[in-house]
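> tool_call: predict_assembly(chains=three)
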Amino acid sequence: MPELPEVETVMRGLSAVLTGQTIARAETRRAGLRWPFPEMLAERLSGRRVEGFRRRGKYMLMRLSGGESALIHLGMSGRMVARPPGEGPVPRIAPQGAFSDARGGGDGLAHEHLMLETGHGWRVGFQDPRRFGCVDLMPTEGEDRHKLLAGMGPEPLEEGFTPATLSRSLAGKNTPIKAALLDQGVVAGLGNIYVAEALFRAGISPRRLAGTVPGARAARLVPAIKSVLTEAIEAGGSSLRDYVRSDGEIGRFQERFEVYDRLGQPCPRCPGPPACPGVQRIVQAGRSSFFCPRTQR
DNA sequence: AACCTCACCTGGGCGC
DNA sequence: TGCGCCCAGGTGAGGT
Protein backbone atom coordinates (compact mmCIF):
# COMPACT_ATOMS: atom_id res chain seq x y z
CA MET A 1 0.00 0.00 0.00
CA PRO A 2 2.68 2.40 0.64
CA GLU A 3 3.32 5.66 -1.13
CA LEU A 4 3.34 8.94 0.71
CA PRO A 5 -0.42 9.18 1.40
CA GLU A 6 -0.57 5.61 2.69
CA VAL A 7 2.49 6.05 4.86
CA GLU A 8 1.07 9.29 6.23
CA THR A 9 -2.22 7.54 7.00
CA VAL A 10 -0.52 4.62 8.71
CA MET A 11 1.68 6.97 10.68
CA ARG A 12 -1.29 8.97 11.97
CA GLY A 13 -2.97 5.79 13.08
CA LEU A 14 0.17 4.52 14.75
CA SER A 15 0.63 7.83 16.47
CA ALA A 16 -2.89 7.69 17.87
CA VAL A 17 -2.21 4.31 19.43
CA LEU A 18 1.41 4.69 20.49
CA THR A 19 2.30 8.29 21.18
CA GLY A 20 2.72 8.81 24.90
CA GLN A 21 2.68 5.09 25.56
CA THR A 22 5.49 2.94 26.83
CA ILE A 23 6.61 -0.07 24.85
CA ALA A 24 6.35 -2.65 27.60
CA ARG A 25 7.53 -5.47 25.42
CA ALA A 26 8.71 -6.05 21.87
CA GLU A 27 9.20 -9.21 19.89
CA THR A 28 10.97 -9.97 16.65
CA ARG A 29 9.86 -13.09 14.85
CA ARG A 30 12.69 -13.32 12.36
CA ALA A 31 16.15 -11.90 11.94
CA GLY A 32 15.16 -9.10 9.61
CA LEU A 33 13.32 -8.05 6.48
CA ARG A 34 15.12 -6.47 3.57
CA TRP A 35 18.10 -6.13 5.87
CA PRO A 36 18.79 -7.72 9.24
CA PHE A 37 17.13 -5.94 12.14
CA PRO A 38 19.53 -3.98 14.36
CA GLU A 39 21.20 -6.03 17.07
CA MET A 40 18.94 -6.63 20.04
CA LEU A 41 16.12 -4.66 18.46
CA ALA A 42 13.40 -6.02 20.73
CA GLU A 43 15.42 -5.41 23.87
CA ARG A 44 16.33 -1.92 22.77
CA LEU A 45 12.70 -1.00 22.10
CA SER A 46 11.43 -2.41 25.36
CA GLY A 47 10.83 0.08 28.14
CA ARG A 48 10.95 3.11 25.89
CA ARG A 49 8.29 5.76 25.75
CA VAL A 50 7.05 6.75 22.30
CA GLU A 51 7.49 10.51 22.05
CA GLY A 52 6.03 11.03 18.59
CA PHE A 53 6.20 10.38 14.89
CA ARG A 54 7.47 12.02 11.77
CA ARG A 55 7.37 11.05 8.11
CA ARG A 56 10.08 11.59 5.53
CA GLY A 57 9.10 10.45 2.03
CA LYS A 58 7.89 6.89 2.50
CA TYR A 59 9.74 6.42 5.77
CA MET A 60 8.21 6.71 9.22
CA LEU A 61 10.33 7.83 12.14
CA MET A 62 9.20 6.88 15.61
CA ARG A 63 10.86 9.01 18.25
CA LEU A 64 11.65 7.17 21.45
CA SER A 65 12.77 8.23 24.87
CA GLY A 66 16.48 7.84 25.29
CA GLY A 67 17.34 9.82 22.20
CA GLU A 68 16.82 7.15 19.59
CA SER A 69 14.42 6.88 16.68
CA ALA A 70 13.10 3.83 14.89
CA LEU A 71 13.11 4.15 11.11
CA ILE A 72 10.40 2.12 9.42
CA HIS A 73 9.72 1.49 5.73
CA LEU A 74 6.72 -0.57 4.67
CA GLY A 75 8.22 -1.78 1.40
CA MET A 76 5.59 -3.03 -1.05
CA SER A 77 3.38 -5.05 1.23
CA GLY A 78 3.97 -3.76 4.74
CA ARG A 79 1.07 -2.99 7.04
CA MET A 80 0.51 -2.18 10.67
CA VAL A 81 -2.12 -4.03 12.63
CA ALA A 82 -3.30 -2.83 16.02
CA ARG A 83 -4.96 -5.23 18.41
CA PRO A 84 -6.65 -4.00 21.59
CA PRO A 85 -5.94 -5.47 25.01
CA GLY A 86 -7.48 -8.81 25.73
CA GLU A 87 -6.82 -10.60 22.50
CA GLY A 88 -10.02 -9.27 20.96
CA PRO A 89 -11.33 -11.41 18.10
CA VAL A 90 -11.06 -8.83 15.36
CA PRO A 91 -8.46 -6.10 15.44
CA ARG A 92 -10.06 -2.78 16.10
CA ILE A 93 -9.43 -0.25 13.43
CA ALA A 94 -7.66 2.89 14.45
CA PRO A 95 -8.66 6.40 13.41
CA GLN A 96 -8.35 7.18 9.72
CA GLY A 97 -8.38 3.50 8.96
CA ALA A 98 -4.68 3.34 9.24
CA PHE A 99 -4.75 -0.29 10.10
CA SER A 100 -6.11 -3.26 8.31
CA ASP A 101 -7.11 -6.40 10.03
CA ALA A 102 -5.29 -9.48 8.99
CA ARG A 103 -6.72 -10.34 5.61
CA GLY A 104 -10.35 -11.32 5.73
CA GLY A 105 -10.19 -12.34 9.33
CA GLY A 106 -7.45 -14.88 8.76
CA ASP A 107 -4.65 -14.93 11.26
CA GLY A 108 -2.12 -13.12 9.07
CA LEU A 109 0.35 -13.53 11.87
CA ALA A 110 2.52 -15.71 9.70
CA HIS A 111 3.90 -12.50 8.27
CA GLU A 112 4.04 -10.50 11.45
CA HIS A 113 7.74 -9.92 11.88
CA LEU A 114 7.79 -7.37 14.67
CA MET A 115 5.32 -6.78 17.49
CA LEU A 116 5.20 -3.98 20.05
CA GLU A 117 3.05 -4.21 23.16
CA THR A 118 2.20 -1.10 25.11
CA GLY A 119 1.90 -0.76 28.85
CA HIS A 120 -1.89 -0.76 28.38
CA GLY A 121 -1.80 -4.03 26.50
CA TRP A 122 -2.32 -2.81 22.95
CA ARG A 123 -0.34 -4.75 20.41
CA VAL A 124 0.94 -3.32 17.20
CA GLY A 125 2.21 -5.75 14.59
CA PHE A 126 4.32 -4.99 11.56
CA GLN A 127 3.23 -7.47 8.91
CA ASP A 128 5.02 -7.68 5.58
CA PRO A 129 4.54 -10.76 3.40
CA ARG A 130 7.07 -9.77 0.77
CA ARG A 131 9.59 -8.57 3.31
CA PHE A 132 10.77 -5.59 1.29
CA GLY A 133 10.29 -3.37 4.31
CA CYS A 134 12.96 -2.40 6.80
CA VAL A 135 13.45 -1.26 10.37
CA ASP A 136 16.46 0.53 11.76
CA LEU A 137 17.35 2.30 14.95
CA MET A 138 19.42 5.48 15.09
CA PRO A 139 20.08 8.56 17.17
CA THR A 140 17.22 11.05 16.96
CA GLU A 141 19.79 13.78 16.70
CA GLY A 142 20.63 14.09 13.03
CA GLU A 143 17.94 11.67 11.84
CA ASP A 144 18.13 13.09 8.36
CA ARG A 145 21.74 12.09 8.00
CA HIS A 146 20.79 8.43 8.04
CA LYS A 147 22.09 6.72 4.93
CA LEU A 148 18.57 5.98 3.68
CA LEU A 149 17.35 9.55 4.19
CA ALA A 150 20.39 11.59 3.31
CA GLY A 151 19.81 11.76 -0.43
CA MET A 152 16.10 12.48 -0.35
CA GLY A 153 14.58 15.32 -2.29
CA PRO A 154 12.07 17.85 -0.95
CA GLU A 155 8.83 16.92 0.75
CA PRO A 156 6.21 17.55 -1.93
CA LEU A 157 3.66 19.00 0.48
CA GLU A 158 6.02 21.51 2.00
CA GLU A 159 6.58 25.09 0.92
CA GLY A 160 10.04 24.34 -0.36
CA PHE A 161 8.70 22.22 -3.18
CA THR A 162 8.01 24.71 -5.95
CA PRO A 163 8.09 24.80 -9.75
CA ALA A 164 11.48 26.46 -9.46
CA THR A 165 13.00 23.74 -7.28
CA LEU A 166 11.49 20.97 -9.36
CA SER A 167 12.68 22.61 -12.55
CA ARG A 168 16.16 22.81 -11.17
CA SER A 169 16.34 19.12 -10.38
CA LEU A 170 14.83 18.04 -13.69
CA ALA A 171 16.97 20.27 -15.86
CA GLY A 172 19.26 18.35 -18.15
CA LYS A 173 17.81 14.95 -17.29
CA ASN A 174 17.53 12.60 -20.23
CA THR A 175 15.31 10.13 -18.47
CA PRO A 176 11.51 9.99 -18.89
CA ILE A 177 9.63 12.20 -16.47
CA LYS A 178 7.96 9.07 -15.10
CA ALA A 179 11.32 7.68 -13.97
CA ALA A 180 12.50 11.05 -12.70
CA LEU A 181 9.48 11.43 -10.42
CA LEU A 182 9.95 7.94 -9.02
CA ASP A 183 13.47 8.98 -8.05
CA GLN A 184 13.20 9.82 -4.35
CA GLY A 185 16.09 12.22 -4.74
CA VAL A 186 14.01 14.43 -7.03
CA VAL A 187 10.95 14.53 -4.82
CA ALA A 188 10.25 12.35 -1.79
CA GLY A 189 7.32 10.01 -1.45
CA LEU A 190 5.90 9.51 -4.92
CA GLY A 191 5.40 5.99 -6.23
CA ASN A 192 3.88 4.37 -9.28
CA ILE A 193 0.28 5.31 -8.54
CA TYR A 194 0.66 8.97 -7.67
CA VAL A 195 3.17 9.66 -10.42
CA ALA A 196 0.60 8.39 -12.91
CA GLU A 197 -2.19 10.44 -11.39
CA ALA A 198 -0.11 13.60 -11.09
CA LEU A 199 1.13 13.39 -14.69
CA PHE A 200 -2.45 12.97 -15.83
CA ARG A 201 -3.59 16.03 -13.91
CA ALA A 202 -0.71 18.02 -15.34
CA GLY A 203 -1.32 16.81 -18.89
CA ILE A 204 2.22 15.52 -19.25
CA SER A 205 3.10 12.25 -20.97
CA PRO A 206 5.07 9.81 -18.83
CA ARG A 207 7.39 9.40 -21.82
CA ARG A 208 8.34 13.05 -22.01
CA LEU A 209 11.99 13.64 -21.23
CA ALA A 210 12.42 15.13 -17.78
CA GLY A 211 14.72 17.79 -19.17
CA THR A 212 11.85 19.29 -21.17
CA VAL A 213 9.58 19.74 -18.17
CA PRO A 214 11.17 22.75 -16.44
CA GLY A 215 9.18 25.92 -17.01
CA ALA A 216 5.48 25.94 -17.82
CA ARG A 217 5.07 22.19 -17.45
CA ALA A 218 6.72 22.15 -14.03
CA ALA A 219 4.39 24.97 -13.07
CA ARG A 220 1.46 22.62 -13.77
CA LEU A 221 3.13 19.54 -12.35
CA VAL A 222 3.85 20.88 -8.88
CA PRO A 223 0.25 21.77 -8.05
CA ALA A 224 -0.86 18.48 -9.64
CA ILE A 225 1.43 16.55 -7.30
CA LYS A 226 0.35 18.56 -4.28
CA SER A 227 -3.35 18.21 -5.01
CA VAL A 228 -3.31 14.50 -5.73
CA LEU A 229 -1.32 13.76 -2.57
CA THR A 230 -3.48 16.03 -0.43
CA GLU A 231 -6.70 14.50 -1.70
CA ALA A 232 -5.32 10.99 -1.24
CA ILE A 233 -4.36 11.70 2.35
CA GLU A 234 -7.83 13.10 2.99
CA ALA A 235 -9.27 9.87 1.59
CA GLY A 236 -7.05 7.79 3.87
CA GLY A 237 -4.81 6.66 1.02
CA SER A 238 -5.46 4.00 -1.60
CA SER A 239 -6.22 0.38 -0.92
CA LEU A 240 -5.55 -2.28 -3.52
CA ARG A 241 -6.04 -6.00 -3.83
CA ASP A 242 -5.95 -7.77 -0.52
CA TYR A 243 -6.19 -4.45 1.19
CA VAL A 244 -9.56 -3.68 -0.22
CA ARG A 245 -12.40 -3.64 2.21
CA SER A 246 -15.80 -2.38 1.36
CA ASP A 247 -16.74 -1.05 4.75
CA GLY A 248 -14.86 2.19 4.48
CA GLU A 249 -12.40 1.39 7.21
CA ILE A 250 -9.43 1.96 5.01
CA GLY A 251 -8.38 4.23 2.20
CA ARG A 252 -10.78 5.01 -0.56
CA PHE A 253 -8.69 7.03 -2.96
CA GLN A 254 -8.50 4.12 -5.41
CA GLU A 255 -12.08 4.93 -6.31
CA ARG A 256 -10.86 8.24 -7.62
CA PHE A 257 -8.04 7.00 -9.82
CA GLU A 258 -8.30 8.66 -13.20
CA VAL A 259 -5.70 6.58 -15.04
CA TYR A 260 -3.88 4.20 -12.70
CA ASP A 261 -4.94 0.59 -13.31
CA ARG A 262 -7.65 1.77 -15.70
CA LEU A 263 -6.37 0.31 -18.96
CA GLY A 264 -8.85 0.78 -21.78
CA GLN A 265 -11.32 2.72 -19.71
CA PRO A 266 -12.40 6.11 -20.92
CA CYS A 267 -10.25 8.96 -19.80
CA PRO A 268 -12.31 11.29 -17.61
CA ARG A 269 -11.33 14.29 -19.72
CA CYS A 270 -12.06 12.81 -23.14
CA PRO A 271 -15.24 12.30 -25.11
CA GLY A 272 -14.39 8.63 -25.67
CA PRO A 273 -13.75 6.82 -28.94
CA PRO A 274 -12.99 7.50 -31.65
CA ALA A 275 -11.50 10.79 -30.43
CA CYS A 276 -9.66 9.02 -27.63
CA PRO A 277 -8.94 5.29 -27.32
CA GLY A 278 -9.00 5.47 -23.54
CA VAL A 279 -6.31 4.88 -20.96
CA GLN A 280 -3.17 3.24 -22.31
CA ARG A 281 -0.57 1.18 -20.50
CA ILE A 282 3.11 1.10 -21.34
CA VAL A 283 6.06 -0.35 -19.48
CA GLN A 284 8.83 1.99 -18.40
CA ALA A 285 11.78 0.87 -16.35
CA GLY A 286 9.96 -2.39 -15.83
CA ARG A 287 6.89 -0.77 -14.35
CA SER A 288 3.45 -0.01 -15.71
CA SER A 289 2.61 3.51 -16.71
CA PHE A 290 -1.01 4.43 -17.29
CA PHE A 291 -1.89 7.56 -19.22
CA CYS A 292 -4.24 9.24 -21.66
CA PRO A 293 -2.54 9.58 -25.04
CA ARG A 294 -4.76 12.49 -26.05
CA THR A 295 -4.49 14.86 -23.12
CA GLN A 296 -1.01 13.96 -21.93
CA ARG A 297 1.78 15.36 -24.04
C1' DA B 1 27.96 11.14 -13.28
C1' DA B 2 23.84 9.34 -15.33
C1' DC B 3 21.18 5.76 -16.46
C1' DC B 4 19.42 0.86 -16.62
C1' DT B 5 18.51 -3.76 -15.02
C1' DC B 6 18.39 -6.96 -11.62
C1' DA B 7 17.36 -8.85 -7.28
C1' DC B 8 14.94 -9.37 -3.21
C1' DC B 9 9.98 -12.02 -1.71
C1' DT B 10 5.06 -13.76 -1.38
C1' DG B 11 0.42 -14.06 -2.98
C1' DG B 12 -3.51 -13.15 -6.00
C1' DG B 13 -5.61 -13.64 -10.42
C1' DC B 14 -5.99 -15.55 -14.81
C1' DG B 15 -5.78 -18.92 -18.67
C1' DC B 16 -5.52 -23.58 -19.79
C1' DT C 1 -9.39 -28.24 -8.93
C1' DG C 2 -4.70 -27.58 -10.07
C1' DC C 3 -0.65 -25.66 -12.21
C1' DG C 4 2.16 -22.35 -14.32
C1' DC C 5 2.71 -17.81 -15.50
C1' DC C 6 2.40 -12.90 -14.91
C1' DC C 7 1.75 -9.06 -12.12
C1' DA C 8 1.97 -6.10 -7.89
C1' DG C 9 2.11 0.07 -4.07
C1' DG C 10 9.82 -0.09 -3.55
C1' DT C 11 14.53 0.65 -3.98
C1' DG C 12 19.56 -0.46 -3.24
C1' DA C 13 23.29 -2.69 -5.62
C1' DG C 14 25.91 -3.43 -9.39
C1' DG C 15 26.86 -3.03 -14.19
C1' DT C 16 27.35 -0.21 -18.60
